[in-house]
Structures are given as structure tokens and as C-alpha cells.
Here is the input.
Amino acid sequence: MDLLDIFSDYTVVVVTLGSALLGMVSGLLGTFSVLRRQSLIGDGVSHSALPGVVAAFLITGAKNTAVLLTGALISGLLALLLILTAIKHSKLKFDAALAAVMSSFFGLGTVLLTCAQKLPDSTQAGIHGFIYGQASSMLLRDVVTISVCGIFILAVVLLLWKELKAFVFDRAFAKQLGIPCKRINLILSFLTVLSVIIGIQTVGVVLMSAMLIAPAAAARQWCDKLWEMAALSALFGGISGAAGAVIGALSEGMPTGPSIVITAGIITVLSLLFAPRRGIIYRMMLRRKAGEVHYGHGD
Amino acid sequence: MEDFAVKIQGLTVAYDAKPVLSDIDLEIPKGRLTAVMGPNGAGKTTLLKSLLGLIPKVKGEVEFSCVRGKPPKIGYVPQSESIDTDFPVTVLDVVLMGCYGRLGWIRRPSKEDKEFSMEMLSKMKMEQYWDRQISRLSGGQQQRMFIARALAQKADIYFMDEPFKGVDAATEKAIIEILKELRSGGKTVVAVHHDLSTAPEYFDWVTFINNRVIANGPIEQVFVGENLSRTYKAGGVT
Here is the structure.
């Protein structure tokens, strides 16, 4: 297929639109994950969603996206709850609790997948796609689901903007202001889980966390304001989604999900290298220019 | 007895099973500059945080006296190292957060809020840095920004956790001027303070704590050798 043809292809347009929207939503929420230093939370939730997907399939026998994603949502939230409870009631640190819960859930998911494969007919064919994603199977219905979730997430973020900003920046001060930090934390976690869940069908549980983190890490390089970072991160996510989908359509056999993630990765590397002031190259030049002059802060 | 701003009775606060503060009885006077002093681990920050309701107390009562018939508004300067200076916010963004408390849900800071925040910044001689990302400030400038944020809270009582920690001489002077201005405006300031040599000059009331209250009163009466040695030698680390 060449570039002109693909945009007259209904399937390609649907997949491109859906992937772009997905990238925007996860880019927006990834901003908060990165700034809270909880970049791995998306990874934990997405891996933990696998047993939910397969269990939903085994129990209902349906391959309906809504049913499978509900399973994913339940097991993702369950894992998150387990992680938070473990941190609260034991001396376990966030990363240890996350790794333990996430690998156990993913292991369980793999075991369930094996059970599903033993089913006599080939109905389980699509289930495997959740591991690495299957963007090409995206339907208009899925795009609608992504859009509805995306609009919901955007609306909540906009309405709670100043509360989120104060909470993520300085929790003690936010609490003193009277902002209900526990509730804000729950809302933010729920939105993050939701954005991961709507993405796993396209990008897969293994790579989904890159959709949260890569655009946000890239965006941080270019700006000094939270709203700029959130907007730019959504833009980078959207570009990655669309570009990955087009690459997937242009080249036979190129998987779309990984193409999206690689595009996001390239944007991140370029941002880390070339961004003014924060970029690696700028800082190397600055250091060389400064020579022996002390590089401090302030005036 | 003077009018109190905060009255604390039997306050006990613990992390896990270990009490950091035991049976604190204290009256913090209205309209004065109070220094909370004691060795490391004495519970100074814990006292501030529990008064602010940021950490739960095991038992005890905390009573704030009303100002013009209403519960007092409270301003807060947390310990400056508790925040990530690489966060994408500008100086004005941070000061504006001081206005969030009176805005309520959904509402955004208005033009007046922005003008008021700029005014507070110029009070701290920080107006020329309003558009800077906060990591490009010196430690002293960051502290002035956090004090401007507390001022933007338009409070009756200000709690400050080590406002003079790690600041330059110019900042120290600017902070002292603001504290005096707050006092002349009838405001109450409670600050955790470490420097024994400057305490009698900067503050007019002192509370010595080390897990419990050692002494509390006007600084010229209480800031004496006996109380100092009881505070700093009563099982503290320093």
C-alpha cells in the first residue's frame, strides 16, 4: 500500500484515528505519572490486566471488547489496590510491591492463556493479541469507546486542574489548603488505570506503559509549565499513535503497537538530545563553554 | 495570661508505636512571633504538622481562637526540601497556589489573584523572577517564593517550618522584615527555628520542646541557660 491509498482505506483511517486518540489520552495522564515519580504504575496495571482479560474470556466465552476490557479493568484495579495496601500495611517499598504484584498477575495471566489455548476450537485466537496488541483489528466501535473515555478523562483533568497541580507538586501544602488529597489520589489513579485499559488492545499489556511515559518524558524537555507539558505530551502521544498506525499500514507485517511505541521512543530520544536548556547536547556545549566557570544556579 | 492563638491540651502524636510528642500542653500567644526550638528529632515539625491537621494525633485537643468571630485562616511554609524543584512550574504558579484555598472547586485564579500574588512576590523582592522555572532559583530565592505563597493565603496565623534554613543573608533580612510586618498587622507567626544565636533577636516568644514541652514563654524570660540545657540534653541527639 502506498501513502495515498492508505487514507482512502476505511480500516486504516479507523486504526489511525483510534491510535492517535489513545496516544493523546495516555500522553496527558503520563504527565502526572512521570511527575509523581510513579512511572512504573502503568506497567504494573497493564501487566496485571492480562489475567482479567483471559478470565473474562474463559468465563463468558465472548470476545467482545467491552467484556474483555471490563475484565482487564477489574484485575488492573485489584492489582493497584493490592499494591497500595501492601505499601500501607508493611514495610515494603512501592517498587518492590509493584514488581511482586505485577509479575504474579502476569504469571497468572499466562497460565490462564495456556488454559484458553487448550480449548477445542480456535475461538481463543484473538486473546493472544492482548500481549503485544493488535491495532489492525480495531473497529469503529473501539474508536468510539476510546473517544468516550478520552473525553471523560480530559474533562476530569480540566475540572480538577488546580487541585491536581497542587497535589502533584506539593502534597503537604495541598492538604493544608483543604484539598482532599486521598480522593484526588484515587481519582488520578483511576484515570490512569482507565487510560491503560483502553490502550492494551492496541498496544498490548507489555508495551502499554511506554505510551504513558515516553511522551511525557519527551514533553518535559521542552517546557517549564505544567499545562504546556500536558499539552505537548498529549501531542507527542497523538503523533506517535498516528505515525505508528500509518507505518503499520504501509509495511506488510509491521506490527502497529510496537511501531507506535518505537515512534514515541524516537521522539523521546530526540527530545533528550536536542531540547534547548535541558537537552544533553545543549548542556554539554554549555559545560564546554563555561570551562572552569562554576556552573551554579540563580543569579 | 495573654490571648492565645492556639491552645493545645494533652497532644500526643506517634509514628508507629513510638510517641514523638507526649502530652503537650501549650498556649501559643496571639500576635506574636513564636519560635519552636529543640534538638533534631524533638518533634518540632511533627508539632506543626499535627496542628495543621496533616498528620493524625493519638489524643489531645487543639483549639484555634477565632478571629473576628470566624475560625482563623492559616498559612503554611513547609520545609523547602520536601518539594521537587524540577517540577514544571514557574515562580508565579507556585505563589498562586496560595490563593487556591479560597477558590473552591473548579474555579481558576482570577486576574486579581494574579495581581495579588505578584504583589506578594514584590514584597519578598522576587518580582523579577516571576516567570522563572523554580529550579533556576537559589535556595534563598526559593524560600522567599514559599513565603510569598504563604502570604498569598491571606492568613491570620502562619506556620513556618525552618524558614531560615539554608538562606543567604539578604533573604534572612527580607524574611525578618516580613515577620515584623505580619506582627504589626496583628498576625501570629509560629516558626521552627534552629539558630540559638539569632532567636532572641528575631522572636519574642519561645517554645522549647523535646518530645514534651520543656518551657514556653516570653523569650526574655524563658531563653535562659537552664532551659537550653534541659532542652538540648534531655536525651536528644545533638
Notes: Chain B has two domains: 1-72+157-166+187-238, 80-155.
